[in-house]
């Protein structure tokens, strides 16, 4: 029984809207502003959550308990919710995290392909199913809010967040984003609860221009200052309103139609104005014209970028239409500043009332007052075989076959197989950014199956598999087939902004080394985006774009050996050279066009 439920306010027969009104009528200004405050878990104690009536706590990328297990996650988040229920009115909090390709901060969770790979499947039903599975793993750990899906429409693949987009085409992004939202938010699978989805980052985050990222000398947070090294992430979106409405807005219409109830605002700018200050786009367009009745959350310290003066930041953002502010660190400063702004008349009580009402209405709709906790009986499903099989299927369907000259499918009975490339036996490189740690990292970061383990499991007992990460096999060793697995290093956000996407010379050298040992050479690339592979293509007989497959690497060998057909289609145009980035000149032709992908029939023969 929560404080709210024990109070006379909570009457089961009262319609939800009236319950919210009744609750608001009892709330002080401080309690309303508390609901508008989201704090990173390392910056606030459960006691302070109760004292300030905090509306939400988040785990940012890597905001993990120690040790990092599903059980310790559940214990951590439960303590915050128990504290929230001890607040005067017992309003439950929303615990949020970025589960952008599974519950990816949790060691042992199922890690799915990143969105670029899901875009390659062209299958919204699969994406919806992944949303449902992710929701189960989130609720097992009492996390009710997922800062996903990202519905960016990346237009320049040099952007470090390109892989968080489903693809370069608006229609594909809108379709897949809506499917992810349905999967997360609609209860099902015997679940009594939904997870709150969050379409992000509104609007035009994928349309920024190289070199336009801002400088914020007045911000003390390391990563925000590091952001001054960003090139395109958080930058300025070019183009007029017609372009914005044609390319970047439709995924939000689709998200609203799919029932999304929270939207995260973008760090980027349009027309020289930061989106977090953009009243026209936040309030007039999104809430007014498009009828969005959920709530808007800011991004990580994004309001601090608006002005050197924090009071101005708070007033500008809240008046522009932000309802909840992600204040990773100094929540006391935010609360006191917003309180002062209301007392001075710079922010109206009506705006505060509207923001608090939006937040409470969503909590009410989610059933959070009746069921403030997730369901720890779901813990055995975190990283379960059934979930991993679904991830394995997603890997299979995400693979795009760009070249195949008689090399695939491989035979399970091939006598000798050479495998090389550090990424061939590295779950961390398989998963990419937003995995356990914000930036991701190489190595056995979480339970999963590497590509190499998948191959060993697939081939006949008498097949000899030789693995040499650097490709320096004994000079006499030859084989019918050799496989080289290349990968980008893991990255997230602006840390992945790259001026030159050409495959490094070391990768070309590796390919040439292995080439000399085998009849047929297959190259597999783990990347968050297309890379410039033009020079390597003549040296191989087959080339597979595997994107960032996640924990279930055996999905790749399933297709390589012909158990399943290749079916993936490019979600991004594949450029021939850097001269074709950000866009291929009309008189030019890309290496492979958007939608390209060789298919194979069930037997695996090219058709
Ligand atoms: C990050 C990202 C956003 C994420 C948030 C919380 O900076 O821009 O996508 O949801 O902070 O981790």
Describe the protein.
It is a single chain. The chain has 607 residues and is α/β, with parallel strands linked by helices. It has two domains: 3-379, Alpha-Beta Barrel (TIM Barrel), CATH 3.20.20.300; 399-580, Rossmann fold (3-Layer(aba) Sandwich). 33% of the residues lie in helices and 12% in strands. The protein has 20 helices and 17 strands. The strands form four sheets. Strands 12-17-16-15-13-14 form a six-stranded mixed β-sheet, sandwiched between helices. β2, α5 (70-84) and β3 form a beta-alpha-beta unit. It starts with a helix and ends in a 47-residue tail after the last helix. Residues 4-9 have low confidence and may be disordered. Bound molecules: alpha-D-glucopyranose. Residues 60-61, 98, 147, 200, 299-300, 493 line the site of alpha-D-glucopyranose (GLC). Alpha-D-glucopyranose (GLC) binds at residues 60-61, 98, 147, 200, 299-300, 493.
What is the C-alpha radius of gyration, as a whole number of Å?
Answer: 25 Å
User: What is the CATH superfamily classification of the largest domain?
Assistant: Glycoside hydrolase, family 3, N-terminal domain
Small molecules bound in the structure, each named once: alpha-D-glucopyranose
Instruction: Tell me the count of domains.
Output: 2
- Poorly predicted runs: 4-9
Tally the beta strands. 17
CATH topology group of the largest domain = TIM Barrel
The major β-sheet equals:
6 strands, mixed
Shape, please? Answer: globular
Number of helices: 20
CATH architecture assignment name of the largest domain: Alpha-Beta Barrel
Please give the CATH class of the largest domain: Alpha Beta
How widely separated are the two ends? Answer: 62 Å
How is the quaternary structure best described? single chain
Side-by-side strand order of the widest sheet: 12-17-16-15-13-14
